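Note to self: keep these together.
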Amino acid sequence: MFLFYAIPAAGFVAVVTVGLIAWYSRKPDSGRDGSEVIRREQDKYRKLQAEQLREEQERREKEKATQFHRASKVKAIKSLAPLALERYVAELFQRMGYQSSLTPGQGDHGIDVKLINPRGEREIIQCKQWPNWNDGLVGEPQIRDFYGAMMSENAVCGYFVAPHGFTPQARSWAMGKPMILADANWLYLKAGELNLNLDEGELSSLEGPSADAAAPLCPKHGVPMVKKIAKRGGFAGEPFYGCPLFPDCMERIHIP
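Structure:
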């Protein structure tokens, strides 16, 4: 009986022993295979990290270049002379599908560009470039006057273009009215949509030979004065330079 059970037991021990020997003999190979898998995964992760870092660096460089491009264009728009700004805006709206025409500059009630939109409706634009007065910001009184000009012209919409921006009071008053207050950033974005990306030299050339380079600055506000013709008084019919802030500013310079 003992012999009957001893033989299977001995066989079982032998099988277990052979299995253990085989497992231990393979263990170093399994360790090497595992290390190789880990190394490959680590290499893949490092490559992925490097690719992500490269893409992030490219994105930042592109964003930086875009910001620099935007800043330079906005600065160029803010530096435009008044007449050049009017011509730039007229060209911009032509690219948008409008019919645009510059007004003669005298007796225009503050309107610088007249528009016919793609639906055949009348719209108007007024441009103000005031870098040396009120931080260049257009205030509520000017917006009110412009709205009056819109009503007088039966315009369905008006654009008040002031590259240096508007006061909070001006923006608040314009809310809910059919007008758009357009600063240099608005012009930059619209120009980008229409691929009207003129460099500084091209922007400056918009001034053209007909610009009144002799126009003096208002002694009170430091903004370029506008050439006008006196309609009444002792100087009726004679030219003079008046402040564009009229009637808030009555400064004028007689032209001999």
